[in-house]
Specification:
single chain; 6-stranded antiparallel sheet; 10 strands
Length: about 160
């Protein structure tokens, strides 16, 4: 051997076997953190979904809509409730019975209207149909019933009392 050569080769000096970054996270630890974070997010989403399904929403202030005499049996009245941006429809079903619903279809928000000949609420966009008195889905793609507006007749005037989506 030649005594003039350094004892360590160049590559050992440039690429030492031991690393100064021993405090870095290993792949296994990173995977653990990743799975734990995903689990926390999933649990949060499940909690949020449960909360939205279990809470009872009733919005809107009581408001006078129309005198009962101005609405014939089987006819409808368009109005906006609970806000000015929410189209709604009122139907006089019988002499002293009225029902009201949001006019937005629960499928994609198209406008529903009353078909007297078929005795149903109908959405022409995707052929969704709803029960006249309850607003429940009878056919088509809508995933849930129409938003119900609580109404009552007070002194021969129809009043909206609240909205339940």
């Amino acid at each position: 051997m030649d005594d003039d050569r350094p004892s360590d080769t160049i590559w050992k000096r440039d690429f030492p076997y031991e690393s100064a970054a021993e405090e870095d996270i290993t792949r296994r630890e990173f995977t653990r953190y990743l799975v734990a974070g995903a689990g926390v997010m999933a649990a949060g989403n499940v909690g949020l979904a449960a909360w939205t399904q279990l809470r009872s929403i009733n919005t809107g202030e009581p408001r006078r809509l129309i005198p009962l005499a101005d609405l014939a049996v089987g006819s409808t009245h368009l109005f906006r409730y609970p806000t000015g941006d929410d189209p709604a429809i009122l139907l006089r079903v019988a002499d002293r019975e009225v029902v009201a619903f949001s006019q937005k279809c629960t499928h994609l928000g198209c406008v529903v209207y009353f078909e007297a000949g078929e005795d149903r609420w109908h959405c022409p966009c995707h052929e969704g149909n709803f029960d006249t008195r309850t607003g429940t889905v009878t056919s088509g793609p809508p995933p849930r019933p129409l938003g119900k507006i609580e109404v009552e007749i007070r002194d021969d005037t129809v009043w909206a009392l609240g909205y339940r989506p």
